[in-house]
Amino acid sequence: MLPPRRPLPRRFFARDTVTVARELVGCTLWAAAGGRTCAGRIVESEAYLDERDPASHAARGRTERNAVMFGPAAVVYVYLIYGLHYCLNLVTEAEGRAGAVLVRALEPLVGLESMRERCGSARDAGLCAGPGRLCRALGIDLAWNGLPLGDRTSRPVQPDRDVRVWVAAGRAPARLAAGPRVGIRHAAARPFRFCDADSASLSRRPVAEGF
DNA sequence: GAACCGATTGCCT
DNA sequence: GGCAATCGGTTCG
């Protein structure tokens, strides 16, 4: 049985970033590239705020890289990390206030053949377990930055390449875990990471503390 | 400008 | 568990 496909409205994203991050767990992320459509259930997310959040790219104001975080909600923010991986974020909040949710892991649902092809050897449950792996599995790169969410709002990234990405409803987790964000030093205590505690596709296990 | 480090991953011991 | 890969933003001189 196929997962829900109808896109969530922009107003879902134009809210408090922590609320959006929490409610995204269980939703379905769709991504189409080069005529191949993939989807997965979001099982792990993290909230990144504005100047109030030292761990956020927006902590020190607007730059060329983080500009989309300050724009309208329901837009994709993609950036290069460690010089070799991409991270997918979904912009939140009203226009003018920075905010985004990092999508850290998916349970693969649709297009597993394409994911396997892009990722090489990995168990199916681990194809999208981690922000970098997820982008690789779905074919997401810097060219997607600034793309509005939607199943019709495609953008010809290159003459022969057309991409689209959106989020649909899904199956809410039975046990939603919250805890500190992964791999950050500043504001490390804030419980801005959310995940489905029972998923086999997390980037890492929830730590006992705070769950 | 140079040095340092990051919202990561995969391969090494 | 340790560490290299590899680039851009930030900080410091």
Q: How is the CATH topology named?
A: 3-methyladenine DNA Glycosylase, Chain A
Low-confidence stretches: none
- Taken from the alpha-carbon principal axes, the silhouette is globular
N to C succession of SSEs: HHEEEEEHHEEEE
Structure description:
With 211 residues, this protein is of the alpha+beta class. The chain has one domain (10-196): 3-methyladenine DNA Glycosylase, Chain A (Roll). Helices cover 13% and strands 30% of the residues. The chain contains four helices and nine strands, in the order H-H-E-E-E-E-E-H-H-E-E-E-E. It has helices at 10-13, 17-24, 112-119, 131-138; strands at 28-33, 36-48, 76-81, 85-91, 100-110, 155-158, 161-168, 176-179, 193-196. Strands 1, 2, 3, 4, 5, 6, 7, 8 and 9 form a nine-stranded antiparallel beta sheet that branches. A hairpin with a 2-residue loop joins strand 1 and strand 2 (36-48). Helix 3 packs across helix 4. The protein is globular. It binds a DNA duplex (13 and 13 nucleotides) through strand 3, strand 4 and helix 4.
